[in-house]
Design brief:
With about 325 residues, this protein is α+β, with helices and mostly antiparallel strands. The protein has helices spanning about 5-15, 25-30, 45-55, 65-80, 85-105, 130-155, 160-190, 250-255, 260-270, and strands at about 200-205, 215-220, 225-230, 240-245, 270-280, 285-295, 305-310, 315-320.
Length: about 325
């Protein structure tokens, strides 16, 4: 999840009244629910470093208790006061756990078991940035301020925000549960179909940020990938999607795989699509190789991608990773 969503969720939990007796619990939740994203600092070394580090060690279960301790120490230092250590630490653990859960339900995923396992966990229930979740949490947080303005005019009782916080958190849980049900429905529709006469090797239903009833289905079969729309309230058409054929692992692709940008992105990708095109270089004919993950867009779109430029002998002249492939051409 993004910084704003995490911060709103932390604020809503702090206003629920569960930790009213624990000093600085609101700040503790705000700090702890965002502290795993300290790995974004790797972005100063470039897009590839950001991709390699994000949702890695700072998002692992092993790091959780240590990051919780760091959160408590940071808040204690900020306010220059001694906190009830164990109570504050437990609150911080909750904040970090909420962050990890929020990342696990997205289509980006998280590596919870590092360093013991580098497997990505992605439940694909929610997009990384969900405007519906943001709206629910923002309304829950802002309602007491709106209510205060109204009460100033008519003399009504000023609310503490506890009721709206509980309403927002309950609505959020209900919304994500409904998303999980429709996600399973989308998966079931693909599991019961054949694609080009073959059973799928791998499938995924990627959430649509704008429409919670719409999913993008991705299917892998022996020689291709297929990307197709799935509507919860519409009839599923297994022939309605785009098809992306798997390329032979020719010399151009093999050369690109040896570079760091392709090596890591290939590990990260769930549905890797290769594109190989001839290009004219300063010293003659060459080849441009691109690797795209269908979860985040198509090869001809603005998406996460790795690129390589090779000469006629398939020697890699340059390779790089970018979050916005439109800027790389």
């Amino acid at each position: 999840m993004d910084f704003i969503t995490n911060s709103l969720a932390g604020t809503a939990v702090s206003r629920s009244g569960l930790f009213k007796a624990i000093p600085r619990s609101a700040v503790l939740l705000l700090v702890s629910i965002n502290i795993p994203d300290v790995d974004y600092l790797a972005a100063v070394r470039g897009p590839l470093a950001r991709l390699e580090q994000h949702c890695g060690y700072t998002h692992s279960l092993l790091a959780l208790p240590f990051l919780a301790a760091l959160s408590v120490a940071s808040v204690a230092l900020l306010f220059r006061e001694r906190l009830s250590w164990w109570k504050a630490w437990l609150v911080a653990c909750l904040g970090i756990a909420l962050h990890l859960l929020g990342d696990a339900i997205t289509d980006y995923g998280v590596r919870l078991m590092l360093p013991f396992s580098s497997r990505w966990i992605h439940l694909d229930v929610s997009p990384q940035l969900d405007p519906w979740v943001l709206t629910v949490l923002a309304c829950a947080i802002l309602w007491p301020h709106f209510s205060k303005l109204v009460s100033g005019e008519i003399g009504a009782r000023i609310t503490t925000g506890q009721g709206s916080a509980w309403f927002g958190l309950s609505a959020l849980l209900a919304f994500e549960f409904a998303r999980a049900l429709t996600h399973q429905q989308a998966i079931s529709q693909m599991q019961t179909r054949l694609f080009d006469g073959a059973a799928p090797l791998q499938i995924a239903a990627i959430p649509d940020a704008g429409n919670p009833l719409h999913w993008t289905g991705i299917v892998e079969i022996q020689d291709s990938f297929q990307k197709l729309p799935i509507g919860t309230l519409t009839t599923f058409d297994s022939e309605a999607g785009e098809k992306f054929f798997k390329l032979p692992q020719a010399a151009a692709i093999q050369a690109a795989k040896t570079t760091e940008a392709f090596h890591y992105f290939l590990y990260f990708s769930r549905f890797p699509v290769w594109t190989v095109e001839p290009v004219l270089l300063a010293n003659g004919q060459g080849t441009r190789v691109q690797l795209t993950d269908l979860r985040f867009g198509n090869p001809n779109g603005n998406t996460l991608a790795s690129f390589a430029l090779e000469d006629a002998a398939h020697k890699v002249l340059k390779s790089w990773f970018t979050f916005h492939s439109a800027d790389a051409i």
